[in-house]
From TrEMBL, chain B:
Transmembrane segment boundaries: 6-32, 39-58, 64-85, 97-118, 138-162, 192-214, 226-253, 273-296
Protein name, as recorded: Branched-chain amino acid ABC transporter permease
Localization of this protein: Cell membrane
Membrane topology category: Multi-pass membrane protein
Assigned keywords, A-Z: Amino-acid transport, Cell membrane, Membrane, Transmembrane, Transmembrane helix, Transport
Presence of the UniProt keyword Transmembrane helix in the record: yes
Lineage: Bacteria, Pseudomonadati, Pseudomonadota, Alphaproteobacteria, Hyphomicrobiales
Main location: membrane
Organism field: Microvirga arsenatis
Length: 343, 306
């Protein structure tokens, strides 16, 4: 059986090797960006935007792990974002600002939440799975809005960023950027090794046909649940980072729209390639950030009033753009990159 | 005192549940018959409310506004179907979710563009203004009773349509096995269109009915959409009967729960803690309820698909 898998996946692997250039370029770009930011003159702005891109990249990648490799559409993934953020916020408000304590607590909380909700959600299939994960996400959202001691609806501002082994290094934007890049790379490397491992192959098997996997002696539930827990922990880590980047935590971290955005990032980038999710997150956030200005610039032939009107209502362009992408760009951005090579 | 409060809350819950049913009915049919996840169903509710606001400002009468809004909502639904949704039926659920998410973004911004970001208000029609005394010393707004009556009437009409007409029979058959219906020589494309337009009109009707008691604003459909999904999932996708029962259950659990969760908790906790946890638990109740239903019945209360 192992041989069969090897032979059938061989062409995909050689194609994959050719595509390795994409993650290398991607990480090189992230590594070079701070230098360019220094030259641009608006380094604070550029750094914070790119830090957000990397953080959402981690979250989107965590979703890709279960969505792209396990076909589990979690519509409540933003809940883990919130768990990570609130772990940082709540511990900080009690005077524990050490990241080496906050992050493990956040990971443990995410793992526990994923274990309990995953065990229940995985009883259901397809659309019911989408809805039950949404339900759990909403529960956590409403729980957060009712935490009056921790800001309730309004959320809470962090007094400072987390300490890293006692030092205040993360206060520096460059250091936070570097730390996020390190996390992104670590999570990416871990996920890559996970999906090519035996575990990853079983997971992909359950994506294709859970019944057959069962017939050859695997229990899909255990593999899916493990993947769900790992994915939740990764998203929890992203939540910790986002809280530090924004120095603010609020229930808005885990609205269902945020979960929807995460799904969109993964699909936009291309399912089941991990770095596709990072590219999707980057494309989404940069588009959201710059579309108003792009619209303003490209409509130079219109009257000034109309131009600012257009820039203000950029979502009326963003929405149709989304629809067009879904209708005409199958396989997301990674699909576009792959296509010419297929001929 | 508590008994009258409970009674009023039950009425409110019933009204909320029936509004939810109007939205969920279309959603569950579209989902059940076409296997199409339409996130944009919530904005059709919003469009209904905006249409009634615009038409009632123009004609000065809620009745005329409603009469004009319904066919417009229907036409709008059919337009969306022809322009976008038709191309998504054979795509997987993920594509459908994303494309309809794009429709939400566009329309939420679109109504802001046309009518401004400020909430609009629609006056309660004069005929239905004021309150009636439904029990000694208990006043209840007539308009809310009218919503309940309208909701029940639509439910009855739907029951007859779905269970005792030829189109209804095709819809039920489509919900349990669409390819088979198509193989038997039914024009499934046209059936889809009818179902879709009808669902859009029902959602628009719900929006129109609540326009006088809620503020009409961009994004008003987003949260109710999620509730409508909760309803159809609890009821079993494609089942009108399930949607009806689940909508009433959700309406009652939500409305009554918000009032009485703190009171009930007071029996076991001290008052301050009870009101704190009560406020935390109340909005979660429907989701806890849904998770519990799916735990015991993973495909809803009345599964249609076999």
């Amino acid at each position: 059986m192992t041989e069969l898998v090897e032979t059938s996946s061989a062409p995909a692997l050689s194609l994959g090797r050719r595509l390795e250039i994409v993650p290398i370029v991607l990480f090189a770009a992230f590594a070079a960006a701070p230098l360019l930011a220094m030259l641009s003159g608006a380094e604070g702005y550029v750094l914070s935007l790119l830090t957000r891109v990397m953080i959402f990249g981690i979250a989107a990648m965590s979703l890709d792990l279960i969505l792209g490799y396990g076909a589990l559409v979690s519509f409540g993934h933003a809940a883990f974002f919130g768990l990570g953020g609130y772990a940082v916020g709540i511990l900080a408000s009690h005077g524990i600002e050490e990241a080496l304590i906050q992050v493990p607590v956040a990971l443990a909380a995410s793992a526990l939440f994923a274990l309990v909700t995953g065990a229940i959600s995985l009883r259901t299939k397809g659309v019911y799975f989408i809805m039950i994960t949404l339900a759990f996400g909403q529960m956590l959202y409403f729980l957060a809005t009712s935490l009056a001691a921790y800001g309730g609806d309004d959320g809470m501002t962090l007094a400072s960023r987390s300490l890293l082994a006692g030092s205040t290094a993360l206060e520096n934007d460059f250091a936070l950027y570097g730390f996020c890049l390190l996390c992104l790379f670590g999570v990416y490397a871990f996920s890559r090794s996970l999906v090519v491992s035996r575990f990853g192959r079983v997971l992909r098997g359950t994506r294709e046909n859970a019944l057959r996997m069962e017939a050859i002696g695997f229990e899909p539930f255990r593999y899916q649940l493990t993947a769900y827990v790992i994915s939740g922990m990764m998203a929890g880590l992203a939540g910790c980072l986002l809280a530090n980047q924004a120095e603010f935590v609020s229930p808005a971290f885990m609205t269902w729209q945020r979960s929807g955005e995460l799904i969109f990032m993964v699909v936009l980038g291309g399912l089941g390639s991990l770095h596709g999710a990072i590219i999707g997150a980057a494309a989404f956030l940069l588009l959201e950030e710059f579309l108003p200005e792009i619209l303003h610039m490209t409509s130079f032939f219109l009257a000034e009033e109309t131009r600012s009107h257009l820039a203000e209502n950029w979502k009326m362009v963003f929405g149709p753009l989304l629809i067009l992408i879904v209708l005409f760009v199958r396989g997301g951005i990674m699909g576009l990159l792959r296509r010419p090579r297929h001929g | 005192m508590t008994a009258t409060l409970l009674f009023v809350q039950v009425l409110n819950g019933l009204q909320f549940g029936l509004i939810l049913f109007l939205i969920a009915a279309g959603l569950t049919l579209v989902f059940g018959v076409m296997d199409f996840i339409n996130l944009a169903h919530g904005v059709q509710y919003m469009v209904g409310a905006y249409l009634v606001a615009a038409f009632s400002a123009w004609t000065g009468s809620f009745g005329w506004a409603l009469l004009l809004a319904l066919p417009t909502a229907l036409a709008f639904g059919l337009l969306l179907e022809a322009l976008i949704f038709r191309h998504l039926y054979d795509r997987d659920h993920l594509d459908q979710v994303l494309a309809t998410f794009g429709v939400i973004l566009f329309l939420n911004q679109g109504v802001k563009f046309v009518w401004g970001a400020a909430p609009l208000s629609v006056p309660v029609p004069e005929l239905l203004a004021g309150s009636v005394e439904i029990a000694s010393g208990l006043l209840y707004p007539v308009y809310r009773l009218a919503i309940i009556a309208a909701g029940l009437a639509v439910a009855a009409v739907l029951y007859v349509l779905v269970n005792h007409t030829r189109v209804g029979m095709l819809v039920r058959a489509g919900a349990s096995n669409a390819p088979m219906v198509s193989a038997l020589g039914v024009n499934i494309q046209r059936l889809f269109m009818v179902v879709f337009g009808f669902g859009a009109m029902l959602a628009g009707f719900a929006g129109a009915m609540v326009a006088p008691i809620l503020s009409v604003e961009p994004g008003m459909g987003d949260n109710i959409l999620i509730l409508a999904f909760v309803v159809i999932v609890i009821g079993g996708i494609g089942s009108i009967r399930g949607a009806f029962l689940a909508a009433l259950l959700i309406g009652l659990v939500d409305t009554v729960g918000r009032t009485f969760a703190p009171n009930l908790l007071r029996l076991v906790l001290d008052p301050a803690a009870a009101s704190q946890t009560g406020r935390a638990v109340a909005p979660m109740l429907i989701y806890i309820f849904m998770a519990a239903v799916l735990f015991f019945r993973p495909s809803g209360l009345f599964p249609v698909k076999r």
